[in-house]
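Model it.
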Amino acid sequence: MKPVARVAVLALVSLSGIALSSCANSLVMVTMPRTTTHGAPAHRFAASFPHVPVTTVYNDSGTKQPQYGVGVNTRRTYVSGGSGPPTVDVFVDSLTNHVPDRRQQPFLRSYLPTSHGGRIIKWHGLLAAIAYVPGCDPSGQCVGIIGSLVVLDGTSLYNIFTHQSNLFSAKAEINTFRLIHK
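Modeled.
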C-alpha cells in the first residue's frame, strides 16, 4: 500500500470513530422534567418528578431497630408516577438519634432495593448508598431499571427511588436530587 493511501485509510478510520462516538453520546442524552423544591423547612430537597408528587406523612413509634441503634419518628413520602416507568419516590425519615458510626453503612444498605449490593459513597460530603438493579416484579417480569440513592444527613435520611426505562434515565433522575439546607 502506498504511503498516501495508508494516510487516507487512517484518516477515514479516525473520522469514522469520531462520528460513531458522537452518535453514541447523543443516544445517552436524557431530558428530565425541571427540578422542583419540596419538604418541610428542616428537610428541603429538590428533585425532578414526572408528575406533581402526592405527599403523605406517617408517624412512627420511634422504636429503635436493635441492629442499627436507631428508629424513625416520622416519614414523609413524595410519590410521583404510575404503575410503570417513569416513577420517582422520595422518602424523608426523621430519625430518633444519630446512627452509630459502625452501623451507618449497614443501615444505609438496608434501604436499598436489594440487601446484597449497592455502593457506599460520599455524596456532596455526606455518607450515602447507591444502587441500580433490574426492575422486576414478584412474577419475575422485568421492565426497566430501579435506581436508589440513600443519603444520611445527621438525624435525617433521604431515599430517592426511581423506576426508569433504562440505566441512563435512572442515573439522570438520581443526579437531579439535591438537599437544600437552610
